[in-house]
Amino acid sequence: MSGMVLVTGGAGYIGSHTVWRLVRNGYQVAVFDNLSTGHRWAVPQDVPLIVGDIADMARVTTTIRKFHVTSVVHFAASSLVGESMIEPRTYYTNNVIGTLHLLDAMRTTGVDRIVFSSSAAVYGEPASVPIGEDSALVPTNVYGRTKVVIEGILHDYVVAYGLRSVSLRYFNAAGADPDGGIGEDHDPETHLMPLVLQAAAGRRPSVSVFGSDYPTADGTCVRDYVHVNDLADAHVLALESLEWQTEATYNLGNGAGFSVRQIIEAAQQVVGHDIPVFEAGRRAGDPAVLIASNRLAIKELGWTPQLADLETIVQTAWNWEQHRPIG
Ligand code: UFG
Fold this sequence. Notes:
It is built from ten helices and 13 strands. It is an alpha/beta fold. Strands 3-2-1-4-5-6-11 form a seven-stranded parallel sheet, with helices on both faces. The termini are far apart. Bound molecules: uridine-5'-diphosphate-4-deoxy-4-fluoro-alpha-D-galactose.
């Protein structure tokens, strides 16, 4: 495919891994990121980084024209579930209104292709697992509700304005690029795997287990962990699929569930020693089990997760934890 790909939120965790993958696959890429949570160091040196907000339509429009952008991969969003419940206005503004402005800029400039970062959070507490894309969308938090609204907007724009759009619903992104240089770095960190590994490295006194009384085999929550580079691959495939399809939605997970305790055990195997654990109460809003059906992405996109093995995911995250820039 010719033309430049604009990656909004390309300095963030999943965004930057996707940028590196696009570049390695020969795409021309520009990153648009306000650096509110992203990192300049995560963007390859030869990729232009435009520091701006997607709500700034004039800036996005100028950027699209300047770089001859022909498609957009849209990550830029506020993405903390807990924070979304306390600051709903920020989430609806940044995610929903921000996306509307981005879409305005795309329409103004005639850019008609978008790959959108959605989330398993759109499903809420699922009626059954594995979760298919046709499962009910009943999000239990504001973050998930913003993603449902945006998916709906994209559908309406496909029908009314001829947009071509793929939404990707990620399950639990984890791991780091095995070839080094980038990885997960949130402040504050809220995700299980980096917290477990920070406790392993002695950077935290312990890792909390949020609830041991769930209706699961060991009482802790079960999630579908998917390597961030496999997510990146899926974005490239989704972008390429817009050559032959106008609209689609795919779950991205490995179709396998691991409990919080299994993650801690896998991490202990990788680091070679015990990790201190603190038994905490449940965290509000956590579903007991989230496992993806990933059959549609495999069948239609030809997606083949390369780093699906849990030990590999943890190992790449541990390599990153030991080498990443601190502070
Ligand atoms: N957990 C702990 N201790 C911690 C942190 C997390 O036990 O210190 C548990 C959580 O309770 C949960 C599991 O580990 O059961 C995974 O938690 P994360 O915060 O790593 O991930 P979530 O499953 O809550 O959230 C992820 C994405 C969200 C997305 C959500 C979809 O980070 O963006 O999946 O449900 F919305």
